[in-house]
Predict the 3D structure of the following.
Amino acid sequence: MKITVLGATGGTGQHVVRRAIAAGHHVTAVVRDPARLSVDADPRLEIVVADALEPNDLAAAVTGRDAVVDTLGPRGTQDATVCSRGAASVVAALAVNNPAARLIVVTGSGHVKDPGDGPLIRYVVKPLIGSTVLKKQFADFARAERIVFDSRLRWTVMRPPQLTDGERKAYRTALDRNVRGGLKLSRADLADAIMVALGDPRTEGHTIGLGY
């Protein structure tokens, strides 16, 4: 499979790049600064310097690929537009250049309150956090998802909880709902779940909740 990874220098993106290469896929890593990509050189790795937030910059990187994985995310509490801008960019680029490709977009579970959550999380914790410290980030996740949902692409949205740099271990997933008690997930396990979703056509057109 030929896979393009957006946000390839980020914590999740680098794990996806490594996992995909280890599985034998050809990976195109879209980066702004190649020096920040701490992944060993490999004949199956192509590095493309481009602005992932500009659809025209992505045209060559998504054309002819089987899948695109968008791991773009905020780098701080003040960065509250990158998810939706990235989603808009990749959706526009794929719609013109490669509408048949699979698309995986990473958002989060914090903005979603559904029966998968326990009562405390659903009715107390998330409303409190979502109206204060992470209000802008949660709104950006929601905007990004609406852009993806409204597209005609073969999408899957990954909704992890708080991400950590921990080691891989057993995790749980749920289709179209959050994972009860799943408050954390390592970036390594998110990368694993992304690769699983790419290989499973039953995830197309669905969201995937994750957590331990």
